[in-house]
Write a structure and sequence with these properties.
Blueprint lengths: L1 H29 L9 E9 L5 E6 L4 E6 L5 E4 L5 E6 L2 E5 L3 H5 L21 E5 L3 E4 L13 H5 L5 E12 L2 E11 L5 H16 L9 H31 L4 H12 L1 H18 L5 H17 L17 H35 L4
Antiparallel strand pairs: 1-10, 2-3, 3-8, 4-5, 4-9, 5-6, 6-7, 9-10
Helix pairs in contact: 4-9, 5-6, 5-7, 5-8, 5-9, 6-7, 7-8, 8-9
Length: 359
């Protein structure tokens, strides 16, 4: 009986993981230009001269600039050759299809091939892309795109360095404006320390599976695993919410839209962990399997997928990078530990069933 249940559970787990992996592909492609972390900190210092209602900020860990224009007048972003690139005004957001920046800024790497009619000297050809007052774009002037760090960083990588001060020109009618900003190198943390802490923690959580399930200690261990999954799942929901906010999502509707379109599997992983934790706390049948499966998903889709922050100084969330690393370590500790503990408990139950004499 136990073996039959385990066999069916294994098939369900395999199907769930396959569906999750296949479903995760478009989500990963959707957020391909949103880095999981970086060592370059971009900041906006202001718009000169200032215009009430015109605001600019850095989003996605520095990967994009976001400009909101509520001045009641059209403002243009100027491209790399001095041509009009974007226009943001009361009638929406437009891009100039003749501007090379329209194509180069579509990816973080700036490697989009230019069409034949891309000519910065040609008259603008405006195409409406949004009816709001906000536009977001990659801008090579605010990025470091070389494969190696600057010379001063290579000479002293343990220190923070100003890479450059950058500017992006704007135009309000005939009046020139300038977005000013800075780009700094920030030394990354020691990733080995974070991995070591995670490994020690997950081994401790996994050891909970060594207590006999039928014993009082085993029941308490299951309750601890359940509580850890509830907390870990709740935090796993908060992390993609933070990424959406850092990517410029505004309001509950904007965050939900971003989650459902680009981070649905991260969201489902967190909710699934909460459900599995509640299942374990209630000591429901097959709770051990639920713990193991939810832990594996939590470790993979919340922990491993965000583990880049262990080795990056800037995280794509609106809180400090240190908090982000603690959260990711918690995903790994809870996820891998719960998986190991659940598998140990399932194995012990299978052995006990095999040793039970058949009447």
């Amino acid at each position: 009986m136990i073996r039959t249940v385990l066999a069916r559970a294994g098939l369900i787990a395999a199907a769930a993981c396959a569906a999750t992996l296949l479903g995760a592909v478009p989500a990963a492609a959707h957020g391909a230009d949103a880095p999981d972390g970086t060592d370059y900190r971009a900041r906006v210092t202001g718009v000169t001269p200032a215009r009430p209602g015109l605001t600019v900020r850095v989003i996605e860990a520095g990967a994009r600039l976001e400009l909101t224009n509520r001045t009641g007048r059209a403002v243009e972003v100027i491209g790399y050759s001095g041509e009009p690139y974007l226009r943001i005004g009361p009638d929406g957001v437009f891009e100039n299809t003749r501007s090379p920046a329209t194509y180069l800024n579509r990816t973080l790497a700036g490697d989009t091939a230019l069409p034949a009619d891309a000519d910065p000297a040609a008259p603008p050809s405006w195409r409406r892309v949004d009816d709001g007052a906000t536009v977001r774009w990659h801008d090579q002037r605010a990025l470091w795109q070389e494969s190696t760090p600057p010379a001063q960083v290579l000479a002293a990588p343990e220190r923070e360095h100003r890479v450059r001060d950058w500017t992006v020109p704007l135009r309000d009618g005939t009046d020139p404006l300038t977005i000013g900003g800075t780009l700094d190198w920030v030394p990354p943390p020691d990733a080995y320390t974070w991995w070591a802490v995670s490994i020690v923690g997950l081994l401790a959580v996994g050891a909970l599976g060594l207590f006999a399930a039928a014993s009082t200690a085993g029941a308490r261990a299951l309750a601890v695993l359940g509580a850890l999954l509830v907390v870990g799942g709740a935090v796993a929901v908060a992390y993609p919410v933070g990424r959406e906010i850092d990517a410029g999502a505004q309001g509950v509707g904007g965050v939900l839209s971003g989650l459902l379109s680009g981070q649905i599997w991260s969201l489902l992983t967190g909710l699934g962990a909460v459900a599995a934790g509640w299942y374990a706390l209630r000591r429901r049948p097959a709770a051990d399997f639920a713990v193991a499966l939810a832990g594996a998903c939590l470790a993979l889709f919340a922990g491993v997928s965000n583990a880049a922050v262990f080795a990056r100084s800037v995280a794509p969330v609106p809180w400090s990078p240190g908090v982000a690393r603690v959260m990711v370590a918690a995903f790994l500790i809870t996820g891998v530990g719960a998986t190991a503990a659940g598998v140990l408990r399932l194995h012990a139950a299978s052995r006990a069933a095999a040793l039970t004499p058949t009447p």
